[in-house]
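User: Teach me something about this protein's shape.
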Amino acid sequence: MADENNSILVGITGGIGSGKSAVASILREHGLTVLDADIIASEITEQDGAVRTEFRRLFGDGIFRSDNTLDRAAVARLVFGETPEHSSRLRAMNRITHPRVLDRLRAEIEAVAASGAKVITVDIALLFETGLADAFDYVVLVTATEAARIQRVMQRAGLTEEQIRFRMKSQDTDEHKKSFADFVIENNGSIDNLRKAAEFLAETLPLLPPKPHDDESDGEES
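Assistant: First, the predicted structure itself:
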């Protein structure tokens, strides 16, 4: 959906703690446009009155602080867990937020494409889970061992191992996603190794052509 000006659309994805946002940051440093689905989702949940109303109906007043900002930790406790109620609340939350996030992403992608950007990348955790892989010309998957991911998130976010594993269960497995990705970066080494891989990607992506869509590949009948 970004090929009007010969732009290519690239999805950067990976599970929690994989390092996908670090890769996206390095691509940004090298001049590539990077849109962040998590930032868009955060803006929507803070600024969209309809979303906040639906959240209040779904989760109650306890998810809002005294200053009326959203308590994301409180929401996380309600949607990530081992019970069917956790899963049900997560699905309900996603039904509220995902369509709005996708609408915003689509609008921002179209605006960037119209400006003449050659490569547009989107940092999006749930690319496969939301069925969006076919919307991208290329998909970059960042992976890491489960142990490495857990350690990173514990250090970064102060979550317990159990809390992290609940979040992992809400995402598809790396092994399944690898079969659909165009590029795979294994982030089990040093930050220098990750930077080298991301810099190679930054050099390679602008050289790639847009992938033909179905309507472009259909030839005329003879």
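Now, about its shape. Residues 216-222 have pLDDT under 50 and may be disordered. Residues 51 and 96 are 7 Å apart (CA to CA). If you'd like, I can walk through any region in more detail.
User: That's plenty for now, thanks!
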